[in-house]
Amino acid sequence: MKPILEAIDVRKAYAAHVALSGVSLSIPEGSIFGLLGPNGAGKTSLIRIITQITAADEGEIRFRGERLNPSHIAQIGYLPEERGLYKKMKVGEQLLYLAQLRGLTRSDATQRIKQWLNRFEIKEWANKNVEDLSKGMQQKVQFIATVMHQPSLIILDEPFSGFDPINANLIKDEILELRKQGATIIFSTHRMESVEELCDSIALINRSRKVLDGPVGLIRDQFKTNTYAVEGKGKLIVVHPDFEVVEQTERENGHFYARVQLHAGVRPNDLLRYLINNVEVDSFRELIPSINEIFIRRVRETMPETLVEETV
């Protein structure tokens, strides 16, 4: 799959602060790409360069093979974490104004505004001032403004902030639909459960550097520890050269839960045969680390020792 966007050795500094230090990324077209990192890692600096709010000190951004330039702005939609709507302006008027700024005719903009307001069930708010809307409704309006011109690349910075679970699911469905229609989405968030649910690939930036990237499934596989969760009934005593019990908890009525780690080269079936011969097995599954667990581990691994000691 060809990349829609490439960052090549991008560097950015503000006075003495280094925001990005040689960051390179390749974002496949038609994918949902998670841009992750703790606060202050450099994510927003990279987004601001992609959206041409600021420029890189070194390196370059390429959009569909071309060096990023002002002609690409119309193909990008950006929902910043800090929302920015005109509070005193009516919802419909504001959406029309923003759509025309992005090159839509008045007729096309009006049609699309009606479609989106109906889809989000807020058409009755079209003639209300933005300040009269709840935070969640304002978020919907800003989301509409971001995607209404049908950009090829959509950048969403904490898109679920301020939403209740029902409306968060509504936005998730719209993100998936936009991807289905061919859009590429860069998705920046601290909600790791959303990353696992939505993202095809991710990149993790920490302390201005990229420390991890790739497809979500492959990354989770890379961090596997060959550990299995076992639930069953009986007395589990593992004294075996091929596996090791790293945790065991007794439960009611003679049941137990255990985590068993296989040594290198040992197959899951070897452990399962041993268990069947010694206990009654109710559940047997591999423990694959979540993106949240991987995020925390990699951030800690890339922190200076003095900072790690302070966080322990």
TrEMBL record:
PROSITE patterns: ABC_TRANSPORTER_1, ABC_TRANSPORTER_2
Signal peptide: none
Gene3D superfamilies noted in UniProt: P-loop containing nucleotide triphosphate hydrolases (3.40.50.300)
Residues annotated as domain ABC transporter: 5-232
Record field: transmembrane: none
Keywords assigned: ATP-binding, Nodulation, Nucleotide-binding, Transport
GO molecular function annotations of the record: ATP binding; ATP hydrolysis activity
PANTHER family with a match to the protein in the record: ABC TRANSPORTER ATP-BINDING PROTEIN, ABC TRANSPORTER ATP-BINDING PROTEIN NATA
Protein family: Belongs to the ABC transporter superfamily.
UniProt name for this protein: ABC-2 type transport system ATP-binding protein
